[in-house]
Design goal:
- This protein is an alpha/beta fold.
- It folds into two domains: 175 residues, Rossmann fold, CATH 3.40.50.2000; 159 residues, Rossmann fold, CATH 3.40.50.
- It has a six-stranded parallel sheet, with helices on both faces.
- The longest helix is centred in the first third of the chain and has 21 residues.
- The radius of gyration is 21 Å and the shape is elongated.
Amino acid sequence: MSSSFNNILYIGPDHKNHRGGIGAVLSIYSKSIAPFNFIPTLSYKNKFYELFFFAGSLLKVVIALLTNWKIKIVHIHGAKEGSIMRKFVIGFIARKIFGKKIIFHIHAGGFDEYFDRGGKFYRYMCRFLVNNSEALVVLSERWNEFFAKNFKVKKLIVIKNPVEHKTVRPVVQAKDSSIVTFLFLGRIADHKGIFDLIDLVIAEQADLRGKCKFLIGGNHEVDRLKKAITDGGIEDMAEYIGWVQHEEKDHYLSSCDYFILPTYEEGMPMTILEAFSFGKPVITTPVGSIPEVVEHNKNGILFNPGDMVQLKRILFEVINDRSGYAAMRNNAMNAAVSYYPESIKQELEKLYSEIA
């Protein structure tokens, strides 16, 4: 039986050495979809390299569409800002030059905000991608009103981000059970709330010391983070662990007690789903699609972005009262089931069959 995936060309950032949520999604796609016809449009090095990389990607797209007659649909994964410009060029080539059907798959939590304050050409590129797509894929139902108001959407469908099913858990070394470990993985920047968290730990270090530890992994403003930790005198409480991937990420997710993401802006964070797959409750904010996944006091705890009074109360509560932890952990693991690749793959196949 011929696979429906023979007819699909996937476009997005490089998933082999990814530095973000889209790459993580595509990495899982690559392991569960066959054949996985994919052309990366972004590789994370420097701006000069990225420009030449994208030029090479355009050539590969043209060659693929010229030579692979099976391709009927170009499934474009995008976000905002520079991603929109790259995907606009790909979408224009695929739709207007080769007459292929396109699917635009939006991952950015702040797509609406950037569209509202974007210039005329930026808005044109967004509208071209959305209005010329046979289907617009989003991460939650919350987008319905925004796209109905600003675009001419042919078909809007919600497809969840997949998370790998870890059938074998890594072996975890025994740790001091009196210390509650919080893990942050993501972009080290203000909009992720990580510096809010560091400021809070610094302010409350006298009462938190000896009771908890914060492990921080990610990229971007690393030097600023390290300086804040050192200047604040919390080197024994907060540790930068680098950009972690693969087995190293599994180790940290397995060995922490809570995953923490005090973010201001999100789509559907892959890291939350990954934490759930390890049965780890999540402390985060109700932004983007997060409230559709994290149920307050069931599989995680929600607080308002930037509300450090709330977060302080939450930290002390989970540190001092662990009576509900086992149930919350079990709920987190159960929540991950509907995000396993098998379920997402079926949704993709259904979508492709409807628009092919």
